[in-house]
């Protein structure tokens, strides 16, 4: 740990209902400050699951990218996104394009992939007029609070993500896989243990079974780690869901989740999961220039509805493989 830790850690504000907050003074050299305090910042994230750093004055993508790279142990590309992002440079993206008036429910980034970020990094360049917080929730606490019978089934069976890729809604093939070449997409799917089937209209349907509960690779703590509620049809706005089912059919939704054996997840189950997340949510409104670090395995995150412009940059750091997290089900790539 760096020598800055003894003076930095006591300055962290730990308030109920809010992520830990540190008020920093970078004195104009933001990237240098990040490099100097890297170990101390990461120590806070390791202890508490997240950290909001206020006072860095992040205003532009170049400076933000430099800070991200000094804090993370490598940045990874965003693959299989469920919504488009703007790419600022390699490994640095906009937040997912999601309707401002709709809640982006709690989830763990890329929890449906075989490799996912251990650390999420966010920077608010332009705070919205109202709302729009990136809230967080402790995954072990959420797991403990969920009904034991529910978590036991998901531990036993895992969860299933179904997706349909087309050119009309959601992420396109190029956005999700980095290519439109069918052979390349098929190669990726086989390597990532994703079942796939091309449809007569040219769209692609996929299924991937993953572990709903994992063990943190450092602490060994059991974490509720998935997107079962967020990517489920019952979390959609009712009018949007009705329209999509009418146009594409129940099997052609851009994304949906099921139990690992293929059974549908009932609306009341999604409601329970989201209610538990709500009871464990910590939030702090963004201010322009803020930096947020999130342990992506220990801590879920969301994006709340907002009004006005909002520019938040994101990076996926510290790649971790599912096999390093003692998953409760076995997943094998072809």
TrEMBL record:
<feature type="domain" description="TauD/TfdA-like">
    <location>
        <begin position="33"/>
        <end position="313"/>
    </location>
</feature>
<keyword id="KW-0045">Antibiotic biosynthesis</keyword>
<feature type="region of interest" description="Disordered">
    <location>
        <begin position="1"/>
        <end position="20"/>
    </location>
</feature>
<dbReference type="InterPro" id="IPR042098">
    <property type="entry name" value="TauD-like_sf"/>
</dbReference>
<dbReference type="Pfam" id="PF02668">
    <property type="entry name" value="TauD"/>
</dbReference>
<keyword id="KW-0408">Iron</keyword>
<keyword id="KW-0223">Dioxygenase</keyword>
<dbReference type="InterPro" id="IPR050411">
    <property type="entry name" value="AlphaKG_dependent_hydroxylases"/>
</dbReference>
<dbReference type="GO" id="GO:0051213">
    <property type="term" value="F:dioxygenase activity"/>
</dbReference>
<keyword id="KW-0560">Oxidoreductase</keyword>
<protein>
    <submittedName>
        <fullName>TauD/TfdA family dioxygenase</fullName>
    </submittedName>
</protein>
<dbReference type="InterPro" id="IPR003819">
    <property type="entry name" value="TauD/TfdA-like"/>
</dbReference>
